[in-house]
Design a protein that fits this description.
By secondary structure, this protein is an alpha+beta fold. The protein has six helices and 19 strands. Strands 5-4-16-18-17 form a five-stranded mixed sheet, with no helix packed on it. A four-stranded antiparallel sheet has the order 12-9-8-13, with helices on one face. The chain has a two-stranded parallel ribbon with strand order 1-19. Strand 2 (55-60) and strand 3 (64-69) form a beta hairpin. The longest helix is centred in the C-terminal third of the chain and has 184 residues, at 349-532.
């Protein structure tokens, strides 16, 4: 019961989305989800459903499923639109085709000679335009890159030979001064001139990676402005959540780009049906390709519809059937001429009345049988329509079940991708932690090394300080010894001088004592002579010859 309710709700949502959603609002895709938004992830099934109404999906080995657009004869990729320069992506292609938001920015193009038209190989990497570039002698040319050319963020396009392996007639050349024309298809020179222009120009292809962005730097804007005297407008980029089908992608100095993240899957395009083409495709401009398995199918004017009640039939080969007649009525029709002959032979009024009554009765019976047959036919047709509706409902349920299974698979795949992303995040976190640990260890080693250097420097400084102290102490000791020696010398000299003075004093004292003794002796002699000769006149000594204190008796 829940499954039936879910299927009914999904069917109602799809019908409401198809009938009520405006063209400029987000819509449900055939996958059952919202249209791809900027920054979300889609897979190849999104490409299959978006591009299916504008062309045919066919298998082409070795590329798998490729897309052939419904375009006019002589159409080439990157010709219906114009080139603009953006700040984020460089030279960017802005397509005027209603389906140009996808195949000119993802995947690669190649020319299928067997089918006589261009085909697109889906890819996962978004780019401003996947083309090779040539320039010189007043001309600029570009050509779609073949599927064999890949982009490597480290070195650019691989392989990058002179012409990227594309033939001469796939190039588009325009005069340099008309390169920024909004209708650039009118400026492209005729194909026969390509052979000459390939010799007169050089390869100027230059794609780089800026973070996760692919940037087209093939033409230098400054040099282009100087050579052509044409100002290059720098556009800002706005992302959109769905492909641009209607309206201009360039407005008010901004370029609207559709660039979701794309995941490659092994899903196949939906089964081909005779669904109507979307607006913007002219049936008269489509390639008239013929394939063994694509013979044109003729259908009746009222194929797939019931003219009685206007109900849509799933069977495209339905034709109205003739009303069945009863076997009894056919037999009575065969008997009717006999009755008329018998009535004509006998002209009896009673017989005529009886015949008339029988004819009316037979007519009434025939009408009743016809009404019964019509009722049976209506009931049969009603039962048949009921069976067809039941079959259509079962088919719709089957398709919804397949859609649900695809959604579950996508959900499981998304969960697996989220799990892988989580594991990658955990690994990145572990790697970051390991790096932080290694950085911490390196920092600790650096600090230890710095500490060891500081300790060594301190030890050297202490050693130098010890040596300086030892030298200062030696100098001080030497100075002290010198001072001590000088002091001892001075002391010895003073001692010698004192001793000399003492000796001199002692000598003077001895001389004084000798003089005193001599005076005493002379005094004694005088006294002796006086005592011997008292009569002799006493002669006094001179006062100046006597020491102080003894000058009482002197002259």
């Amino acid at each position: 019961m829940k499954t039936k309710v879910w299927l009914a709700l999904a069917t109602a949502a799809l019908l409401m989305n198809a009938g009520l959603n405006p063209a400029d609002q987000p819509r449900l895709t055939l996958l059952g989800g919202m249209a791809a938004q900027a920054g979300v992830r889609v897979d190849f099934s999104f490409f299959y459903n978006e591009l299916g109404p504008y062309g045919d999906w066919r298998r082409f080995e070795p590329y798998g499923w490729v897309w052939y657009p419904d375009v006019g004869r002589g159409w080439r990729p990157y010709t219906v639109g114009n080139w603009v320069f953006t700040d984020d992506y460089g030279w960017t292609w802005v397509s005027a085709d209603p389906w140009g938001s996808i195949p000119f920015h993802y995947g690669r193009w190649f020319y299928d000679r067997d089918h006589g038209g261009w085909a697109w190989v889906p890819g996962t990497e978004w780019g401003p335009a996947w083309v090779g570039w040539r320039g010189g002698d007043g001309f600029i040319g570009w050509a779609p890159l073949p599927p064999e050319v890949e982009f490597d963020p480290r070195i650019g396009l691989v392989p990058s030979d002179r012409n990227f392996g594309v033939s001469w007639n796939t190039w588009c050349f325009v005069p340099s001064h008309r390169f920024l024309s909004r209708r650039i298809e009118r400026a492209i020179v005729p194909h026969p001139r390509n052979a000459v222009l390939l010799d007169r120009t050089v390869n100027i292809t230059h794609y780089t990676a800026a973070g996760r962005r692919v940037v087209n730097r093939s033409i230098d804007p400054g040099r282009f402005e100087a050579e052509t005297r044409t100002r290059v407008i720098r556009y800002r980029v706005d992302e959109t959540d769905r492909p641009i089908v209607k309206g201009r992608a360039v407005r008010d100095g901004r370029v609207i780009l559709f660039q979701p993240e794309v995941v490659k899957t092994t899903a196949e395009p939906p089964r081909r049906t005779d669904r109507p083409r979307r607006e913007g495709v002219r049936p008269g401009d489509r390639f008239e390709r013929r394939y063994p398995d694509d013979a044109p199918r003729r259908q009746p004017a009222d194929a797939g519809s019931d003219r009685r009640n206007g109900e849509q039939r799933p069977d495209a080969d339905y034709f109205p059937r003739a009303e069945p007649r009863s076997v009894e009525l056919d037999g009575r029709d065969q008997q009717a001429p006999g009755i008329e002959r018998r009535s004509a032979e006998g002209r009896n009024p009673d017989i005529e009345r009886e015949n008339k009554r029988l004819a009316e009765k037979e007519k009434a019976q025939r009408q009743a049988e016809l009404e019964q047959a019509r009722q049976r036919q209506v009931e049969q047709e009603k039962a048949q329509r009921q069976a067809e509706r039941e079959q259509a409902r079962q088919q719709q349920q089957l398709e919804q079940e397949k859609t649900r299974q695809r959604a579950e698979q996508e959900r499981a795949q998304k969960q697996a991708e989220q799990e892988r992303a989580r594991q990658q995040a955990i690994q990145q976190q572990q790697q970051q932690q390991q790096q932080q640990l290694e950085q911490e260890k390196a920092r600790q080693r650096a600090e230890q090394e710095q500490a060891r250097r500081q300790q060594a420097e301190q030890a050297q400084a202490q050693q130098r300080a010890e040596q300086e102290r030892t030298r200062q102490q030696a100098i001080q000791q030497q100075q002290q010894q010198q001072q001590q020696q000088q002091t001892e010398q001075e002391r010895a000299q003073r001692q010698a001088e004192r001793e000399a003075r003492q000796q001199e004093q002692a000598q003077r004292q001895a001389e004084r004592e000798a003089r005193q003794q001599e005076r005493a002796q002379r005094q004694a002699e005088r006294e002796a002579r006086q005592q011997a000769n008292p009569q002799q006149q006493q002669v006094l000594p001179e006062c100046k010859s006597l020491p102080p204190g003894q000058q009482q008796n002197c002259r």
